[in-house]
Amino acid sequence: MHQDHPVKLVVTDDLRRSRPRVFFTLLLAIPHFVWLFLWTVLMVVVVILNWVVALATGRPAAALHRLTCSYIRYATHVNAYVDLVANPYPGFSGEEGKYPIDVRLPELTPQSRWKTFFRLFLAVPALVMASALGGGGITYTTSSSGRSRFAGASARGALAITCAVLGWFASMAQGHMPKGLRDASAYSLGYTAQVMAYLLLVTDRYPDADPTAMLDGVGRPPVHTVRLVGDADDLRFSRLTVFFRLLLTIPHFVWLVLWGIAVFVAAILNWFVTLFRGTPARSLHAFISRYVRYQLHVYAFLYLAANPFPGFDGAPGRYPLDLQLPEPARQNRWKTGFRIVLAVPALAVNGALGYGLAAAAFLTWFVALARGSAPWGLRNFSAYALRYQAQANAYLLLLTDAYPHASPLEGAESPQHEFAEAA
Questions:
Q1: I need a surface site. Which of 163, 164, 230, 409 has the fewest CB within 10 A?
Q2: Are 405 and 224 a contacting pair, CB within 8 Å?
Q3: What pLDDT digit, counting tens, does each position of 241-270 carry?
Q4: Contact 136, 78 (CB under 8 A)
Q5: pTM
């Protein structure tokens, strides 16, 4: 049974952004960078002392626990401000309930001594995922002389920095942060906070990469025309097919390349047809739809989001993780004419999610070999990344002019936010 994580992300942001504040974000954040660095230096000493105390008594020291919680909240507030996930200027104390992007941390409880002793090693897989998603906390580098030193108190992940850069331009133009980008960044901050809480001995509960659980309570975006369907709740995996997964995918790689060449030609033809009459050609639309669905099946198999060996025809309803695509419909001609240019931000987000997808698959491979099943959180993150990839492909290949939405949450039947634009 999937249990709630004791480290909870709290999102009360209204998406509105002040343009002057957005423009000077990094300059305004300099005092916080300095303070976060100094606090991080202190935390190195604190976590070592707390580690010794937790080993001796079975629980961290109460005063050190409170200080660590404040540090994690403060780091989250600063990262939320810098990544444009929230608008107000944060305070310097890491108080709970004082910022639109906040973290609710658990009270002091007993912790397993063996988990405490090996905490740094056990945290490595979570740190790999955190490097793909977001960042904040203690980081080190090693100089050429072999001596360790501080690199800074904050690190950015691929998803967080991509959403921040795109969100900067969107906020300057519109005066608000697109919901999709905000949700994706908030998710990365929440996961990073769970990693920090685990690494710094606030809890011995392992970080949970499940986007739906992380953003529980956050309003969902509208239903997208391209969405995941099927029955993918069975997390059981064959250890044999997991071990040889890359080798087994080779025939699909070959077929994807050959089919992709034909789709490239079909997409160019469809671009002219859509520009001329405003609607894609039905036969070309069906041909490209099969390819996009087939690609999802192959990548779901390759990245361990599903277990069965996929077919080669991209037919709907034949794979646990499937794709619902729209029928040919009228599309905006100017969006069609500039489709490649307009798709660039979506491709950037897709690239960042691809980094996380590879990390999740790498970790899932080891877990599935050991347990014969995939972790729920990593599988759900992989499904999110694959869904966005399918939406980006469908947009680029003229199956729809609905822009991909970067929110990790599945679409709802009716929007629950004033600003529900896809991003």
A1: 230
A2: yes
A3: 999 999 999 999 999 999 999 999 999 999
A4: yes
A5: 0.90
